[in-house]
Structures
1.
Amino acid sequence: MRTITSIYNGMNVIQIVPDSDDRTPFTEALDLIERYEPETLLPRITEWADRYKDNPYRMGDLSLALNWKSYEHEHDNPELARVYMNAWNDIHYAARNHFKGKDARIYFEITG
C-alpha cells in the first residue's frame, strides 16, 4: 500500500511518495517541502519517523537526509540548519535505542 503526500506549488500538485517499496529519497521530498510548504516540515518529519520507526532502511535514509540538509543550510540559513540538526538528533537517538541486532547493524551501515 502506498501513502501519497501531496504539495501544491501554486500551479500543480507535486506527489511525494516516501514509500518503503521505492525508497524515494527523503532529500528530494524535503527540498519540495522547504520550497512550497515550509510550515509542514517538522510535522512531516515526525510523520515519517513514526511511519518508518520499525524499518532500519528507511530510518537510515531519513537520518542521512536530515544530517545532509543540516549541513546544506549551515551557512545560508543557520536557523533551518538547527531545525534539521535537532530533528536528526531526535531520530538518531530514537533509532539507536529502538533497533537491536540485525536491524541495528543495518541502520548503522546506512548511517555510517
Note: The two ends are 30 Å apart (CA to CA).
2.
Amino acid sequence: MNLVVSSFSGFKDFDKFKRHMKMFDEKFFVSCIVSDSNKKLLELVEMYQEEINVGAESFTPNFKKDGASAIFKLNDNLIEMADTIIVFHNGKDKKVKDLISKAYKNQINTIIIF
C-alpha cells in the first residue's frame, strides 16, 4: 500500500504525527510517500522511520519545470500513486485543500487531521 503524507507549512508536532501514524504501522505500511516541500514534515517522517524501520520516498514540487503550478502538479502525481492519504491540515493551506479535493474526486481513502 502506498501511503501519502502531507501537511500544512509549519506543522512540526512529532507527538501528534506519531500518534496518528501508528494506525498504519503494521496493517498498512508498505511504502510512505512524503508529498511536501515542508522540510519539517520530512524531518518528522525521518524520525518516525527510525522508530519503525519503514522506508519513505520524498517528492517535492519542481518549480523550475512547472512554475507556480508545481505544487498542484505534484498533487496530481501523488494521487496517481496513493492508496491512502493522510493530511495534517490547518484548514487554510491551499495545497493541502487541493490534495484533499483531488483525493475525494478519485475516491482515495483520505484521513484529515486538524
Note: The two ends are 24 Å apart (CA to CA).
3.
Amino acid sequence: MELQSLHIYLSTYPIREYKGTIKYNSATGSVELNLLPEHMQPLFEAVAEALVKSSKAVAAQLTAEVISTAQPLLVQKDLDEVT
C-alpha cells in the first residue's frame, strides 16, 4: 500500500481537537481512515522528532561552513599580527 494523503485539521466544534484522515492506495483499491484525537499525539511526536533531528543536522552543517570559512581569515589575521 502507498500513502496517498494525510490530512490533519483543528476541529473547533463541539470542542477544539485535532482530527484527520489518512488515505492509502494499492493495486486492488484504496482505503481512507478517520484519525481521532488520540491518534494525533504519536503523529505530532514523530514530526517533532524529525524536525529536531533535521534542525540539528542543518545547525551542524552551518557551523562547519562558518568554521571553514572563518579559519583562513583567522590564520591570516594571526600572520598579520606577527609581521
Note: Residues 1-35 form one domain.
4.
Amino acid sequence: MGILDDYNQNDDAGGADPADARRRRSRLERDIVIAESDLKKVLRERTDLEIEQKRLKKQEERIRVERDALDRKLKKTEDDQRLLEEEIKSLKKKLKTLPV
C-alpha cells in the first residue's frame, strides 16, 4: 500500500528527532498531492468515458430507429412482390383460358 507502508516504517523509528518528523510530514504531504493529482486524472478520464458512452448510446438508438424503418420498408417491398407475383399468375391463367 505505498503511502501507508512508508508511514508505518517511519513511525517505527520513534519520532524522537524533530527534523525526522518534518521529513515524514513533508513526504506524506507530497504523497497526498501526488495521489490527489492522480485522482483528478482518473476523474477526467471517467468523465470522458461517460461522455463517450452517452454518444454511443445516442448513436445506437439512431441506428436502431433506422434499422426498424428499413425493416418496415423491406417488409412492404416483400408484400408488394408477393402481390405482384400472384397477380401475374392470375393473369397468366386468364390468358390460357382465352381462345386462340
Note: Residues 44 and 50 are 10 Å apart (CA to CA).
